[in-house]
Amino acid sequence: MSLMKRHIGRRVAGIGVGVALMVLGLQAPAYAVAPTATAVSPTSGPAGCVVVVTGTNFKNPSVTNVTFGATAATFTIQSDTELWTTVPGGAFGATTITINNGSPPNAVIAFTRTDPTVSAGGCAPTVTSYTPTCGLAGAEVVIAGTNLLRSDDGTGAFVLFAPAYAVAALHSNAATETPTSLDIFVPTGAADGPIRVATFNNTIGSGAALGATIFQVPPPDCVAATGHTRAITLKLKKSGKASGVVSSTETTPFTACVNAVPVKIQKKKKGGGWKTAASATTSDTGSYSAKTKGKPGKYRALAPATTVGTPAADCLKAKSATRTIK
Predict the structure, then answer these.
(1) Is the pLDDT of residue 178 over 70?
(2) DSSP characters for 256-316?
């Protein structure tokens, strides 16, 4: 038998063995690793408290169930190293959180379930700041604090404004909120007073908290933010390619102000003023590119002021520093 025939015969035999193993279900299982739990925050709280568990292998494979003692709990996997879960009802006192992804051993970490009529444990929400500290109805406000979720799917705390603390504010994007940050709109009828948040109940000092700062409605009690600030970068090549990024410059970026933004690349005219040399539209991440003629001179990039969202939010004009092609 020739060398080539023997080689082909071995390949065919190998393929046949692989097919047979697949048919018989004898293929090696997918690589799986047991989860670990290294920290939990808070370490105590009542039913309804949202707990953040950090560890490893929450997606390798994905966690299939979480229990507090013997009681199943709802949960969402934020990443391979972070999981949010809501404390279910059950007996008060020391217990354990058990996390199972089907690959033993399970991850286990201590937790204490409290009686909310006696103690909120470590789960009482706090409000440390809001930005800005004043604004009309429809203005966007970012609230910073701790324990600001009321369910593990990322649903933010109920946010209420003076005078009656009866009307909840509309969340800007609840899906992006975290235990330490809420993004809301000032409701119609709001008045001067601290902002109130409520999670597992509406009792101040337990499941609710008041900010230490007075939120003022409306201006001119203070100078409110006039809109979301933006920046734009510009890179130029002699080939005529212009590119850059429109970004939100706020502490908590307002991403709607960087998506689908019309951008103008302008060239300085000899007699003064500017002439548009190219136009582009940003991607959902704020990047853009355009083709100019690449002629020598000074160039700049502009992103005009726009209004987006419901309620309407103002995105301020962004103007880049000039760049020169020699």
Answers:
(1) yes
(2) GGTTT-EEEEEEE-TTSSEEEEEEEE--TTSEEEEE----SEEEEEEE--EEETTTTEEE-
277 CB-side CA count, 13 A: 25
> How many Cβ atoms are within 10 Å of 316's Cβ, its own excluded?
19
Instruction: Domain 36-113: state its class.
Output: mainly beta
d(CA 178, CA 59): 20
Q: Could you say which of 2.60.40, 2.30.130, 1.25.40, 2.160.20 is the CATH number of the domain covering 230-325?
A: 2.60.40
Distance CA 212, CA 139 (A): 20
Instruction: Please state the φ and ψ torsions of residue 257, each to the nearest 5 degrees.
Output: -85, 0
DSSP state of 168: B
pLDDT in tens, 62-78: 999 999 999 999 999 99
Domain spans of the chain, in order of start:
36-113, 126-210, 230-325
Helices of type H across the chain = 3-24
- Quick check: do 36-113 and 126-210 share a fold? yes
Q: Which of 229, 231, 236, 247 is nearest to 320 (CA)?
A: 231
The CATH architecture assigned to 126-210 reads: Sandwich (2.60)
pLDDT digits (tens, 9 = 90+) for 205-258: 999 999 998 998 876 556 545 578 889 999 999 888 999 999 988 766 778 889
Q: What is the mean pLDDT of the chain?
A: 85
